[in-house]
Amino acid sequence: MVVSKSSRNKKAIIFGTVAAAFLVAISAAGGYWLYERNQPSQASKADCALAQRIVDGAQDLSHDKQAVEEWEKNTMKLRRSEMKDGYLGFRIAQYEIWAALQAKGEGAPPADKQVKELADKANRHCVDAGVTLTLPPIAS
Q: For the segment 117-130, what is each residue's pLDDT rounded down to a tens digit?
């Protein structure tokens, strides 16, 4: 059986084209996977609403150390039992700690810039839920 040179060239071109298309598809899928992997988790509307309720509750803290500690305990239990998105919960827990420390008169309040950065990070988890969290500065 005699195979002509042009027949081999055609097969090589077809094989090369298929291989290149396959590599492009794999690269695109890998790029999309990396893109999605680096996106923040998306919390539910209920998680985002709970986060806002916790932040709102932090605004009404008394300066009674025992009452603040009770609020911390109850809020932590509520957040851990009801909030499904742990990453959003982590951001809200940071705000809880700052508010509780300030209410108890312990430590310096975070800078407004720190609270804004925390709010931005927390809000990235609520994009799909269509909720915008409002984290007021923690007064000194």
A: 999 999 999 999 99
